[in-house]
Write a structure and sequence with these properties.
Layout (H helix, E strand, L loop, with lengths): L15 E4 L6 E5 L10 H7 L4 E5 L15 H14 L5 E6 L1 H12 L4 E7 L8 H14 L2 H11 L2 H6 L1 H12 L3 H12 L14 E6 L7 H10 L3 E6 L6 H4 L1 H13 L53 H12 L1 H9 L6 H15 L7 H15 L2 H13 L4 H15 L1 H19 L4
Parallel strand pairs: 2-3, 2-4, 4-5, 5-6, 6-7
Antiparallel strand pairs: 1-3
């Protein structure tokens, strides 16, 4: 289990299932965001003949307890705590999408635990932070239904989806029954995940497996992993999209068996296990998948005024917060035109507004967004209001809460100011909460 500092709570355990002989080498399988351990059903029969297979669910998926994880590292720590509880010390690991991110984090932070690695539909950075935070806004506003209905197109090729309507229905139901808060937290975890600069430290044999038609994390991202990981090889699966283990189960199984069989089996060991209860999915959660028929970097800082000795410079944490709240696209645009005349002002804003005030512990970000929007309405700064309505949605305020804040400003800032603010906010809310095709 990861070491705990004084007063730190132990990580919550994950829902899991075990298949295979007690004394076999251990292989852990991690799921994609929105999917459950059942996405690996077609692999288990073959893999459990040689390995003790441990599958786990993400928080709030498949009926698992709805305890949102704040980062990929948090998920990895929960997985290690779960494996500790069932006696697993060292293991092979295969993970899909966010499950692959967990595998990369484990290989980087706990190489003593991971003997061999398979990364399926994975990436060292999943899209942009803005994309995942916007997805969180959509789920917070509309629930998971838009994401559930879009899942088949994102996960499978068109031909497979047309030929396998039962699996399409299974995929939609699997996402639909996920806990929204846990899904949003997972989006936030992926928004901040970026190990591009650390790939060279992955010191275990790695198979990078990707569907040739994956439109989410496709061959380009796979080649980035292979180029960065010293001992990695690429496997391209024809006729597969994002969930290759579901769409092309035999090909994926063969590749996994070949890869993990090449690892020294004494590196994938477990303490003998006692009989363990297996957490079962809630009745509303989808069960096994139907059988398929065969067939941005922060800018450099100018010298500026020196900080008092011994006091940490708030610029870097300020830039991190500024990007998390306002989005990479906005911050990049704001700083792209820096010149000797404007650069020091941008530095001041980043260092003191974002590094000092927004990072103070006295108020959470939701409250700071409410205060900021009120101040902008009072000052008539509508050009800045749009930016901070978008930021408020990122920070967890709902459209109804933003509406209440603006109604409140009508009393204290004046009806004309609030009327103009409603026009700006309505446009932003529509843009941010309407799912894009």
């Amino acid at each position: 289990m990861p070491e705990l500092s004084a007063g730190q709570a132990a990580p919550a355990l994950l829902q899991y299932r075990i298949d295979g002989p007690d004394d076999a080498p251990v292989l852990v399988l991690g799921p994609s965001l929105g999917a459950t351990w059942h996405m690996w059903d077609r692999q288990v029969a073959d893999l459990s003949a040689e390995w003790r297979v441990v599958r786990y669910d993400l928080p709030g998926h498949g009926g698992a307890p709805a305890e949102p994880a704040e980062s990929v590292a948090d998920l990895a720590d929960r997985l290690l705590a779960t494996l500790d509880a069932i006696g697993v010390q060292r293991f092979g690991y295969a993970g899909c999408s966010i499950g692959g991110a967990v595998g990369l984090d484990l290989a980087l932070r706990r190489p003593d635990r991971v003997g061999s690695l398979a990364l399926v539909a994975a990436s060292p950075r999943f899209g942009t932070a803005d994309e995942f935070r916007r997805r969180g806004v959509i789920v917070r506003t509309n629930g998971l239904e838009p994401v559930a209905l879009a899942a088949p197109a994102a996960w499978f090729t068109d031909a497979f989806a047309a030929a396998q309507p039962a699996i399409v229905d299974w995929a939609v139901q699997m996402v639909r029954t996920t806990d929204p808060a846990c899904y949003i937290a997972a989006c936030e975890a992926l928004a901040t995940f970026d190990v591009r600069a650390e790939l060279g430290r992955v010191a275990v044999p790695a198979l990078v497996l990707v569907g040739a038609e994956d439109q989410v994390t496709g061959p380009a991202e796979a080649r980035t992993l292979v180029a960065g990981i010293p001992d990695a090889r690429l496997a391209l699966v024809p006729g597969a999209g994002h969930l290759a283990p579901v769409e092309q189960p035999a090909a994926v199984t063969d590749l996994l068996v070949q890869h993990f069989s090449a690892a020294p089996q004494d590196t994938l060991t477990a303490i003998p296990l006692q009989a363990q209860p297996i957490a079962s999915a809630a009745p509303a959660a989808p069960s096994a998948a139907p059988e398929a028929s065969t067939g941005s970097t922060a800018p450099a800082v100018s010298a500026g005024a020196p900080e008092p000795e011994g006091r940490p410079d708030p610029y870097e944490p300020g830039m991190k917060t500024r990007r998390e709240v306002l989005g990479d696209a906005y911050v990049d645009a704001a700083t792209a035109g820096d010149d000797p005349f404007t650069a020091e002002f941008q530095e001041l804003v980043t260092r003191y507004a974002w590094g000092e005030v927004w990072n103070r512990e006295g108020l959470d970000r939701r409250t700071r967004s409410a205060v900021t929007m009120t101040a902008l309405v009072a000052g008539g700064r509508l050009e800045e209001l749009a930016v901070h309505v978008r930021a408020a949605l990122r920070n967890g305020l709902t459209p109804d809460e933003i509406k209440e804040i603006l109604i409140h400003t009508a009393v204290y800032c004046g009806a004309p100011a609030a009327n103009a603010a409603f026009g700006v906010a309505r446009t932003v809310v529509r843009e941010e909460t309407t799912p894009r095709s």
